């Protein structure tokens, strides 16, 4: 297994995972935009050349927003989500990020457990953000600046 930054040439595999996991996936064009933007950090977990999962964030000075974390359904529950999130947080800390924010659907227990296990704390909830009875939890984690 190998975790590395995503490149534009990874766009097809990124789009594939998006389509498998999300109801409103990024299109190929949006995936390409995400991979091209200066303020984005996307990483993927690869077995040989096959992307099994990815994680992405946008960075604005010392604050980062986690955009998505996703692992192919057949590969979930093997610790890959944790590996991706750990790497992403480490890379964000290295570029000077001190605060990470994200939003997650209130019944997405797998993702919520994952984030809580990394010390994220709920700071607010946006009612019906994703649709009726589908609320967004806003989670936050502070990073210690060890520089
Ligand atoms: C959320 C997701 C990335 C987790 O990836 P994963 O590789 O399955 O997770 P891991 O095997 O590394 O498990 C990490 C933690 O997630 C939580 N978790 C994983 N599977 C779970 C399950 N079935 N039920 C509850 N919590 C679960 C646990 O806290 C687990 O830690 P533990 O094993 O120490 O208990 C994955 O389920 C996924 O891709 N989901 C669909 C996309 C999504 O909703 N992404 C998040 C919003 S963008």
Give start-end ranges of low-pLDDT stretches.
none
* CATH fold descriptor: Aminopeptidase
Classify the helix fraction into a percent range: 25-40%
Give the ordered list of helices and strands.
EHHEEEHEHEE
User: What is the rounded distance between the termini?
Assistant: 29 Å
Regarding CATH, which class? Alpha Beta
Structural class: alpha+beta
For the report, how would you describe the main beta sheet?
7 strands, mixed
| Count of individual domains | 1
What is the arithmetic mean of pLDDT? 96
The number of distinct helices, counting runs of at least 4 residues, comes to: 4
CATH architecture designation: 3-Layer(aba) Sandwich
Q: How big is the Rg?
A: 15 Å
The general outline is globular
Task: Give the strand order, joined by hyphens, for the main sheet.
Answer: 1-2-3-4-5-7-6
Q: Give the amount of beta strand, in percent.
A: 35-45%
- Which small-molecule species are bound to the chains here? coenzyme A
Q: Can you count the beta strands?
A: 7
For the record, what is the CATH homologous superfamily label?
A: Gcn5-related N-acetyltransferase (GNAT)
Q: What does this protein look like?
A:
- The protein has 147 residues and is of the alpha+beta class.
- It has a single domain, classed as Gcn5-related N-acetyltransferase (GNAT) (Aminopeptidase, 3-Layer(aba) Sandwich), CATH 3.40.630.30.
- 30% of the residues lie in helices and 40% in strands.
- Coenzyme A is lined by residues 21, 68-71, 76-82, 104, 108-111, 113-114, 117.
